[in-house]
Amino acid sequence: MALITWTKDQFGTNVNVTDEQHQLLFNMLNELHDLAAGADRAAIGNKLDALINFVVEHFATEERLMKHQGYPDFDAHKAEHTKLLETCGGVQKKFHAGELDITQETTTFVKDWLVSHIPNVDMHYGPYLNSKGVS
Ligand SMILES: [Fe+2]
Ligand SMILES: [Fe+2]
User: What residues pack around ion ligand 1 (CB closer than 5 A)?
Assistant: First the structure.
């Protein structure tokens, strides 16, 4: 069973590019969650790196959009992104150094972050960006 499922009601921002990225992100996280149940380290490492690269790209997309449109909560929003990326960077480094394993607790931590961040933080830029003509 999938760890996390995108629905418009729970996660829709009404901004096409970020809604699409969130769905891709969920797919990648679900794949990593399945691998974390017992796949070999190389497969887990490849998926972990791809997921983190995509998170970096996704945050950059949101930050570019918000900054370009003068979104008032830009700084607080970016600070949440930065904090997660610091955590992810630490996990990635330790994993590749052989000091830490990726488990379903790790993927559940990321899921919990998304389940809080998207509805409580991302979904607030939707109406603002829509009002600036971004859809
Ligand atoms: Fe997002
Ligand atoms: Fe965000």
Answer: 122
Short-list 129, 104, 94, 109, CA closest to 19: 129
The residue among 112, 103, 2 whose CA lies nearest residue 48 is 103
Domain positions in the chain: 14-131
- Ligand 2 ion: residues within 5 Å (CB): 62, 122
Q: Which residues of 108-120 are buried (b: 16+ CB within 10 A; e: fewer)?
A: eebbeebeeebee
Identify which ligand lies nearest to the alpha carbon of 13.
Answer: 1
Give the whole-angstrom CA distance, residue 18 versus residue 94: 29
Q: What pLDDT, in 10s, does the model give residues 57-105?
A: 999 999 999 999 999 999 999 999 999 999 999 999 999 999 999 999 9
Q: Give me the sign of the Cα torsion angle 8, 5, 17, 121.
A: positive
Q: Find the ligand nearest to 26 CA.
A: 1
Q: Which fold has domain 14-131?
A: Four Helix Bundle (Hemerythrin (Met), subunit A) (1.20.120)
